[in-house]
Structures are given as C-alpha cells and as structure tokens.
C-alpha cells in the first residue's frame, strides 16, 4: 500500500535543496569538463534524479553499503565522498578517489560506504546481495543498497539477485531509478507491465512505487526498508519514478525524445519543485538562491584543485593488478 508522505520542515527542505544543488552542480561541472576536453571517455549523468540519492543516503548507517551504476557520481557525493576527489577521478588525476584508475564509471570509495560503480547493467544487484550475506556473518548488521535503472530490471543477474535475497531474507534494498528510458528505448516498449514494482510480489518481497522527485518520499520509504531489513524482514524493491533531464551520455543527440517530454519533466524535477515549496513556506528568495550559488562556488573550487593535481605516475600502472 502507498504511504502518505509527511511534510518536512522548512529547515529539512532547505538542507535537501542545498545537497541536491551540490549534486546538480557537480554533474554540470563534470559535463563542462568533458565538453571542454579536460575529461575524456564516456560519461553518464543523473541530472534531474538528485532526490533519490539525497533521500536514500540520508538514512545510511556507518556500516551500510551502496552499489551504484555507471551513473553514480551523485550517489558517491551523497555517501560523503569529497567533490574534489570525484572530479579528480573523472579527470584521471592521482588525487582521485581511486587514484585516477576508475574514471567516471568505475570509481569506488569503500571508506565512504560507496562500493563502486559498474558498467555492466544490473551487476551491482548480485554484489549488493553478497555484501548483505556477508553482513550476516561479519557482525556488522550491514544493509546493502543497490541502485539501477528501469532497463536493468530485465537483466538475468537482477532477477537472480532478487530471488536469492528474498529466499534467504537478506537485508538488501533494490532501488530502481525509473526514468522511463532504458538507455535510448522507452520502458513501455520493453515490458508488458510498466509498474515495475509489481514484480516484488512474485519474489515474495516488499515493494513500493514512490515519487522519485521528492527526497522526503524517498527518505521515508527507504527508511522503512532499512527498518524491515534490520529486523529480519528481508529485502525491499523501491521503484522511484523520476526523469533524466540529459542524454544517456554526454554527447547524446537525444533524437529519441518525445515531443514536450523534457518541458514536462523540467516542471516536475526535484530542485524546481522543492524551491517552490520553500517559497510557499515563506523562505526568502535570497536564501533559496544561495543554495545554488554556494554549490556552484564549491564545485568551481573543487574543479580548479583537481585540474592542478598531478597525473598518476606511470611506474604505478601495474599496482593493484596482482596479489
């Protein structure tokens, strides 16, 4: 059953706005660096989806684990990874969170509970299931979150992970960021039942479909899933409905977009909606504008430091390859 979302206080909403602006400004800075040639390689952004990592990461415990996709910059920032370390990693600098070896799509930061990205669609699901199983034996009481897109729901590895997690009642939260585009194909052209959360019942796990543009809705539902997992209630599938305001990758011509789709999505995107809600609660325009201004200043500073950082020493190219 759908739950009624409680009204967040203006202070809590302002905190969410500031954090989501940090995520948005980080990714817009990364896009700028890629288009300017300072960053190379394929880069995938989650602009417009910031409410999901903001809400979910705000309920993480110190021993929990997050497994993202190649669209994972905002999840890493939500886990507490410093912006400068993320940008430096995208730029291939030695000061990057993975020493410049992971780039945009493969970096990992386990010290921050962020167990990395993966370019194999849906591959984080079995990894998170394994981390949850390990938590049963290592005394941490770990809950693992795996996040993936709507297209990954059709991957065999995701099915196997969900089935295994449900059979053994493992503490896993499967978060589907349903932005309606499975890369370049609309999800309604790929499935017979567009409400993907309905699959949860077939596995014997709890499931909920929520507004993925509302950080409070995400926080409350993922929080309930955490409580369920910690109490031995097993896994949960959370389908967070959202929209991607940018292409599948930087440089995507987006010719597959439907007429008017982006205009409608921009009206519902989380930063616009939350800023309007704050204004309705009497929060001044200058306070609201400062959230964006401060975030952009932070990312400008982080990018400048990352650009000044050294490249990795070629002599270390074989480090971490062999035990």
From TrEMBL:
Keywords: Oxidoreductase, Thiamine pyrophosphate. InterPro entries: DH_E1, PDH_E1_Alpha_Subunit, THDP-binding. Pfam families: E1_dh (PF00676). SUPFAM superfamilies: Thiamin diphosphate-binding fold (THDP-binding) (SSF52518). Residues 20-312 form the Dehydrogenase E1 component domain. The keyword Membrane does not apply. Its cofactor is thiamine diphosphate. The keyword Ubl conjugation does not apply. This is Dehydrogenase E1 component domain-containing protein.
């Amino acid at each position: 059953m759908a739950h009624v979302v409680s009204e967040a206080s203006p202070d809590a909403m302002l905190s969410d706005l500031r954090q989501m602006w940090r995520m948005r400004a980080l990714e817009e800075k990364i896009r700028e660096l890629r288009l300017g040639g300072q960053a190379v390689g394929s880069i995938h952004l989650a602009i417009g989806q910031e409410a999901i990592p903001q809400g979910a990461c705000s309920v993480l415990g110190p021993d929990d684990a997050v497994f993202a996709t190649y669209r994972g910059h905002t999840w890493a920032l939500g886990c507490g990874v410093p912006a400068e370390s993320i940008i430096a990693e995208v730029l291939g600098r030695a000061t990057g969170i993975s020493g410049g070896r992971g780039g945009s799509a493969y970096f990992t930061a386990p010290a921050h509970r962020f167990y990395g990205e993966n370019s194999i669609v849906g591959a984080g699901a079995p990894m998170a299931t394994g981390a949850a199983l390990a938590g049963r034996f290592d005394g941490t009481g770990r809950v693992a979150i795996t996040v993936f897109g709507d297209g990954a729901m059709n991957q065999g590895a995701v099915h196997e992970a969900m089935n295994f997690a449900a059979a053994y009642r493992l503490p896993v939260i499967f978060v589907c960021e349903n932005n309606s585009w499975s890369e370049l194909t609309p999800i309604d052209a790929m499935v017979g039942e567009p409400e993907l959360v309905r699959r949860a019942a077939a596995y014997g796990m709890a499931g909920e479909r929520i507004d993925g543009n509302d950080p409070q809705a995400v926080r409350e539902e993922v929080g309930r899933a955490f409580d369920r997992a910690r109490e031995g209630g097993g896994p949960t599938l959370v389908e967070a409905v959202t929209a991607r305001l940018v292409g599948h990758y930087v440089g995507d011509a987006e010719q597959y977009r439907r007429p008017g789709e982006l205009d409608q999505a921009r009206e519902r995107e989380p930063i616009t909606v939350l800023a309007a809600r704050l204004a309705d609660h009497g929060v001044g325009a200058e306070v609201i504008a400062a959230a964006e201004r401060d975030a952009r200043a932070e990312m400008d500073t982080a990018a400048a430091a990352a650009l000044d950082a050294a490249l990795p020493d070629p002599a270390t190219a074989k480090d971490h390859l062999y035990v």
